[in-house]
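Protocol step 4 of 6: structure prediction from sequence.
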Amino acid sequence: MNLPKQAGAWSRPETPRRITAQTIFDYMDGAGELYVGYRFGHLDVYEYTAVDQSLGTILVELYWMQTSDDAFGLLSTDWGGEPVGLGEAAPDDKRVQVVPPQRALYGAGLLRAWSGDLYLRILASRETPHSREAVFALARAATSGRPNPPVPAVTAVLPGGAPSPATGGTVPEPYLLRPDRTCFFRSYLVLNSAYFLASQDLLDLGPQVEGVTTEYRSSRTGAGRMRIVLVRYPSADAARGAAVKFLQGYVPEKASQASAAAGRAKLEHGWLAWATTGASLALVLDAPSAREATTLAAASAREVARIPKTTS
């Protein structure tokens, strides 16, 4: 990528610093697991400096991921910030209402963006109108002409999206999907940051697994919350094995009698239901009733199972 050498009062060195999967833990303390969990390729780092040191610096981080889904996942871990338009074309996907429509977010000097297989972070150490302008200019340069693919397939079939997939009518009234709570994941650490399931990996997650979770909230009171977790595995055997492991770790008192194919359990905060279809596993947690939980889990598992296989 040929970033501009100058952005306002700030200029960059000729070459970036290259960070790999082997050196990312030296570059950042504690956050490297997040990027590796999303199939991180490498990171290019540019530090823009100004002659006047009181202006601070602008750090540009270009995270090159294996697929667009991985780059999207990084953005989906936090939907907070001001929506920013970088001149990108609208994606050819009408189902993106399951997530916020923006592909770039800005707040307190930090801009984050998803652009194809690129996840972009640009941070001004001192936020001013001039540094903000420079950050936006660098973001536009980094994303200009890049592809604008749709959200991951497993995310697009979340029940309650528009237009509604086959599962759309099964979301219990008056629950509505919260796009700003939607998170695509491959790692249990990321899932736990969105919804804490367990301190261990109960779902056998990993680089070849695709998962999404979101929250549904009552449109009447705003208080009632329901959670869905959809996971797509490389094989049907992997999905069934994950369901068994989940039951043994999450509801051990029921695991010996429960079927990995489908089931339900009454827990403290509502009903839990699970269902497997082919290589898919669906969990519904904190549902208001057993019927609604089981219906939603079964329909969601079927919808994920219909997603065509890919080589990613």
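Step 5 (inspection) to follow. The radius of gyration is 21 Å.
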